[in-house]
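Thread: "does anyone have the structure for this chain?"

Original post by V.I.:
We have the sequence but no experimental structure in hand. Need at least a predicted one for the grant figures.
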Amino acid sequence: MFSLHDRKLAQEIVFKIKKLDVKLKFMHVCGTHQDTLVRNGLDYLFRECGVNIVQGPGCPVCVTTPMEIEEIMLLAEHGKIIATFGDMINVPGEKHSLRDMRENGYAIHTVYGIEDAVFLAEKYRSRDVVFMGIGFETTAPTTAAVLLKKLPSNFSILSCHRVIPPALKTILDMGEIRIDGLIEPGHVSTIIGLKPYEFISREYNIPQVVAGFEPLDLIMAVWLLVRQIENRDALVENEYTRAVKKDGNIRAQEIMKEVFEPVDKRWRGFPVIPKSGLELKKEFDEYNARKKYDEELQEVWDKEFKEPRGCRCGELLRGLLSPQDCPLFGRKCTPDTPVGPCMVSIEGSCNIEFRYKKKTTV
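Reply from O.Q.:
Generated one for you, tokens below.
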């Protein structure tokens, strides 16, 4: 877990935090942070220090809505070849999952990236291929970069990309949970930098730290947040200086702006969040699955979809409860028989909790 040097530094930080006798709640918005937190037992360590860390909407698969899942499944039913990331095929829809459809003969392919989906379109010229693009600012530039190339006419994208800062604003505006500090995602921040978070500290007086993914990164992030609170500061600090620059990746930002436009978007467990989604600009309509197949998709758009019965993923994504608080956790809902996406995705809090603790509620 730690080198000798890191262990000594971690012990010093933990001692300092305990000495301050704090009682604080922090939120992070990254599935990898949750994995580091639980896998290394840091959640217990921080609670001993008076710090409770909850996961927010930092799992792209988890925040993808039932409507979007039904969109891609309907396109599969209409004979399209579907390409998406591995976790998505296991997320339950209203009646079944993409994996169920594949087992019943539909053309569902798991891919490592959008380039693999383009390869499918080049290979099967007589079939329409739809790539389901999910992810935050980390993966959106890869989708955008491909769209700037010449693509097969039988290729299109169902964009389910989202951006993080508007979701954080919505959580704070909803007022359901008291948050004393935010641990911002390292991967996203390599693209967007620090500036998009500054309004949160300025308008909501909340300290923030961008953190890396090693155990010591999280320990340092907690210490920096505690120190800000003790000093009555509200800043955006960068713990992950080895990867994140203040201005982020300028070229990636430019590519995203060239291809995408921000749109109002619903997130699982949330109301519509203004300017939180990324849709293809009008000049890319020929590759926009929602434009290309609008008549076929109308059937889905005319319906209203509910969360799976008993699933509490929405509350988990808003930081209101932990996996152990859900009566389905570890019983009806397991990685082999998931009820909701938080148990499906390797970045989902329920999946992480099950893998490392495997407990059920009493």
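V.I.: this helps a lot. Residues 199 and 255 are 24 Å apart (CA to CA).
O.Q.: and The domain at 62-163+249-301 is CATH 3.40.50.11740 (Rossmann fold).
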